TrEMBL record:
This is laccase. It is found in: Secreted, Extracellular space, Apoplast. Residues 28-124, 135-276, 383-460 form the Plastocyanin-like domain. It comes from Solanum pinnatisectum. The keyword Repeat applies. InterPro entries: Cu-oxidase-like_N, Cu-oxidase_2nd, Cu-oxidase_C, Cu-oxidase_fam, Cu_oxidase_Cu_BS, Cupredoxin, CuRO_1_LCC, CuRO_2_LCC. PROSITE patterns: MULTICOPPER_OXIDASE2. Residues 1-20 form the signal peptide.
Length: 478
């Protein structure tokens, strides 16, 4: 069984550029962790949960030696890093590499080029804004009392949706709103009055969309609530009150949900606490009133849409296996596909009203083909190996005759992961200038398991610097 390990990291930035250097890191072990009165062994990086940050500058070369000390196969994916001509370091198992087997080692070797900010494991340059007093990683995740691998295996066998998580977490801590969880297991952000903090947010939850720009600066705007889809990152400048407020504040995160399936509808809480003006005094802060904010409703599509606009997928079924009882719709197994077919034709094989009532036949086909793109062609469609421009989005079915006239071709936001509106569409555009095989998939883990994934094969260009590099000598064998 292949287990993808997504390690959650934030980058630090420095105010002055320096000469690029080579940085070395080593990793992977098992560690016992206790949450919600349940102790279990989980995969960690150097024994830390969440994993440690990699601090690097633009132009640095990274050599990450990964030794697998766990019983499962593993790979590491460097989410959002543009692996230029170097798909061998991207990480998706059985696409650009075989997994690292137990007891084996592989060195991920790549250079940070043309990126800055926060990714899931990443880099450093000057700020395009006033330097913040401090940087704080905020990593949204999920906690399962049971083994997530067992949950996915059971769901794929039964055909129904997977069991939901038992809690959401901030930096690995579920907070004080869950049973058997206290302030000790609550993330606490201590701040000083009149200062600015840079919050590096990462949504590492597997199957839910939490309250949003992928290592790319956007035009700033003020907001009290943030929408961030699975796999996305964003940086937020938190400006504290000018004077000590004699109060403590709760920070909340919960899912935005539009589907009809089961989901974890709980809320994770953290604490924002101002440092006491009296040195070495904690009594004053303990007596402060605790203020709670109000989040938008779970299904507030209007808020989600309006938030996304400020930044300048469908499911199917498969028949049940022979001599097996399945618990999906009408005795089938849940599945997913792109363009009704997992080998991604240019146009769907079966046309229907994609955002209306489901057709009578929801069966998906199976395939293992890729879509081939010549080098340096432009394509409009989480995509590995590229950033893309979000040129348009809307509700209902995409109208190729009318909707392109409304595309933003002046200042579209640049992302590596995008949330598609419920019962709607998104148009993205990227330049296929990076030769290799690149994975594109839904960032809801369950949808990827069902088949909502495909791959682009970008061909070599004519010049030497437009060709895929040869594979490294230590590339894992299957």
């Amino acid at each position: 069984m292949t287990m993808f390990i997504i390690v959650f990291l934030a980058l630090c930035l420095i105010s002055q550029p320096t000469q690029a250097i080579t940085r070395h890191y080593e990793y992977i072990t098992m560690q016992n962790v206790t949450r919600l009165c349940h102790t279990k062994s989980i995969v960690t990086v150097n024994g830390k949960f969440p994993g440690p940050p990699i601090v690097t500058r633009e132009g640095d070369r990274l050599l990450i030696k990964v030794t697998n000390h766990v019983p499962n196969n593993i790979t590491l994916h460097w989410h959002g890093v543009r692996q230029l001509r170097n798909g061998w370091a991207d990480g998706p198992a059985y696409i650009t590499q075989c997994p690292i087997q137990s007891g084996q080692t592989y060195v991920y070797n790549y250079t940070i080029i043309g990126q800055r900010g926060t990714l899931w494991w990443h880099k450093i340059v000057s700020y395009p804004f006033v330097k913040p007093y401090k940087e704080v990683p905020i990593i949204f995740g999920e906690w399962f009392n049971t083994d997530p691998e067992d949950i996915i295996s059971q769901a794929l066998q039964s055909g129904e949706g997977p069991n939901v998580s038992h809690a959401y977490t901030i930096n690995g801590l579920p907070g004080l709103l869950y049973n058997c969880s206290t302030k000790v297991n609550t993330f606490k952000l201590k701040v000083k009055p009149g200062t600015t903090y840079l919050l590096r947010m990462i949504n590492a939850a597997l199957n839910d969309e939490l309250v949003e720009a992928d290592a790319l600066y956007v035009k700033p705007f003020d907001t009290k609530t943030v929408l961030i889809t699975p796999g996305q990152t964003t940086s937020v400048l938190l400006k504290t009150k000018s004077k000590y407020p004699n109060a403590t504040f709760l920070m909340f995160a919960r899912p935005y949900v539009t589907g009809q399936g089961t989901f974890d509808n709980s809320t994770v809480a953290g604490i924002l606490e101002y440092e006491s003006p009296t040195p070495h005094s904690t009594k004053s802060t303990m007596k402060n009133p605790l203020f709670k904010l109000v989040l938008p409703p779970l299904n507030n599509t209007s808020f989600a849409t309006n938030f996304s606009k400020r930044l300048r997928i469908g499911l199917s079924t498969n028949p049940c296996d022979k001599n097996q009882t399945c618990q999906g719709p009408n005795g089938t197994k849940f599945a997913a596909s792109i363009d009704n077919f997992p080998n991604f034709p240019v146009n769907p094989l079966n046309w229907f009203n994609y955002t209306g009532n489901s057709p009578n036949n929801t069966m998906a086909n199976n395939g293992t083909k890729v879509l081939v793109l010549p080098f340096n062609t432009s394509s409009s469609t989480n995509l590995h190996g590229f950033n893309f421009f979000v040129v348009g989005q809307g509700f209902g079915n995409f109208d190729s005759n009318k909707d392109p006239a409304k595309f933003n071709l002046i200042d579209p936001v640049e992302r590596n992961t995008i949330g598609v509106p419920s019962f709607g569409w998104v148009a993205i555009r990227f330049l296929a200038d990076n030769p290799s095989v690149w994975f594109m998939h839904c960032h809801l883990e369950v949808h990827t398991s069902w088949g909502l994934k495909m791959a682009w094969l970008v061909l070599d260009g004519k010049l030497p610097n437009q060709k895929l590099l040869p594979p490294p000598s230590d590339l894992p064998q299957c």
